Amino acid sequence: MHRLFFLLIFSLSLLSSLSGWGASLSFSGNSQAPIELSAESSTGLDKIYVLRSALGVTASYTATTQNVTWMRYSNLGGGYAEEIESTMADGVSSITLPIQDYGYIIEDGTTRYYFWITNYANHIISLDDITFNDEQDCDRARLVPEGDASRIVYYTINGQSKTLSRELSLSYNTLSYDETSESYLTKPVQSTLEYIDGTFSCVAPLCNTQFTLSGDRFMKKWSLEQTVTSASYTAVAVEAQTSATQDGRDYENEQSVETDGLGGSGPVLIAFHAAVTDAAIYTEWQLSNDSEFESVYDRYYQLDFDYTFTEQGTTYVRFVADNADATCEYDGDVYTVFVGESSLLCPNAFSPGASEGVNDEWRVSYKSIIDFDCHIFNRWGQEMIHLTNPGQGWDGKYKGKLVPAGAYYYVIKAKGSDGQTYNLSGDINIIRARTSSSSSSTDTEE
User: Fold this and answer.
1) What distance, in Å, lies between the first and last C-alpha atoms of the chain?
2) Residues 48-62, buried b or exposed e (16+ Cβ, 10 A)?
3) DSSP β-ladder status, 47-51 and 111-119
4) What are phi and psi of 8, to 5 degrees?
5) Contact between 78 and 160 (Cβ < 8 Å)
6) How far is residue 188 from each of residues 124, 185, 209, 248, measured CA to CA in Å?
7) Looking at the DSSP assignment, which residues form a beta bridge with residue 282?
8) DSSP-derived secondary structure for 48-113
């Protein structure tokens, strides 16, 4: 009951102290300037002070009343604070500090202020060297510091432990992918550590580098910052960026093929590109007919290659990479390439010269035709044109002149991506052809 009553009074006095925020302490007898830090509101503290050494140091508070009491608490919090001896002279209340870290409550009349004072002499940093753990992870570099930069603890007025961050600086280089150059470029990395307690880790660098550890912020403030640099670290982590760019065709007579990914009407030409980090020694593009790549039917070991997909069906392509001892690997995104089944249809009439852009060229309608050979003859067996690409067409001209209206004959041999062969022949009827003079067209064997 007594303790609960005391905590209730303590909590009420805490609320009353909010109006007094901004109070501060001064120190004498110290060789280095004290460092004053703001405290999170949740701690209940007005300020935190870090002294280079508390030995022989006096802490002072400028009073607003003649009734000033100092109390001191440790890890148990303000509820167990004990009153300590203080002196008052010319409106300034003072105490002699112990060498231990403590929290302090100053009661000035009806107002209370709360402080924590850390004696840095109890937490001096020493940075001697950085070495590497014998076993390295693919995702994290494991570093072993030599020296001491352990955790500095302080306590809130409720006895909750908090970390007083040393703000150690760890810097090194890694690689970052640059989309403009489509390559990995060196990127400096800097991270902040609250403290170090034995082996610690950071995101594994993607290139060979050195680690530099410096600090802490208190020694830096006193111009006594320490810095240590490791030996060269050999990167083991592997990363890659890949892309697949399909070569487009714009033939009006090519039928479309629905697909969610790459591909469509064959043949499909795709350029594959990969950029890798320094540790990627073994690299390989894999092609498979199953998405799990249990069976790989083709491999390419260069970073960039072009591939023409000619067979109907779905092909899966991915990029993989390993480091020198195969302890770290990279499996890239899977690209799905679908080539549709074939189709080949031949029109039997067109009207060259009659209306530009409207049925004025003879073209087959097709999809996924990978081999194509077409000959068009007049009625005497004279070849008018030879086409080797299904996207090509005949404009109804022979040697630059429109041919007369009438019947012509085509012979086509073709092969589809699905293996189907086409042996087609038939008539082509030219209608509404322009024949302005006997010299503008030909219908005779030459």
Assistant:
1) 124
2) bbbbbbbeebebbbe
3) parallel
4) -65, -45
5) no
6) 29, 10, 10, 39
7) 322
8) EEEES--TT-EEEEE-SSS-EEEEEE-TT-GGG-EEE--EEETTEEEEE--SS-EEEEEEETTEEE
What letter represents residue 354's amino acid? A
Q: Give the pair of three-digit tokens for residue 18.
A: 């909010």
Say which residues have a Cβ less than 8 Å from residue 365's Cβ, sequence separation at least 6: 253, 255, 343, 344, 345, 346, 347
Q: What is the pTM of this model?
A: 0.79
Distance CA 141, CA 135 (A): 9
Closest by Cα among 248, 293, 295, 300 to 274: 300
Half-sphere exposure for 257 (CA within 13 Å, toward CB): 26
Q: In 3D, which of 47, 35, 36 has the Cα closest to residue 105?
A: 47
Residue 61, Ramachandran bin (φ over 0: left; ψ between -120 and 50: alpha; else beta): beta
How far apart (Å, rounded) are the C-alpha atoms in residues 44 and 115? 9
267 preceded by a cis bond (ω within 30 of 0): yes
Residue of 180, 239, 249, 181 whose CA lies nearest to 207: 239
Tens-of-pLDDT digits for all 446 residues of the chain? 334 434 433 443 443 333 345 689 999 998 899 999 999 999 999 999 999 999 999 999 999 999 999 999 999 999 999 999 999 999 999 999 999 999 999 999 999 999 999 999 999 999 999 999 888 889 999 999 999 999 999 999 999 999 999 999 999 999 999 999 999 999 999 999 999 999 999 999 999 999 999 999 999 999 999 999 999 999 999 999 999 999 999 999 999 998 888 999 999 999 999 999 999 999 999 999 999 999 999 999 999 999 999 999 999 999 999 999 999 999 999 999 999 999 999 999 999 988 887 899 999 999 999 999 999 999 999 999 999 999 999 999 999 999 999 999 999 999 999 999 999 999 999 997 444 444 444 454 44
Which residues, including other chains, have CB under 8 Å from residue 170's CB and lie 6 or more apart?
190, 191, 192, 193, 202, 211, 212, 213
- DSSP-derived letter for residue 444 is S
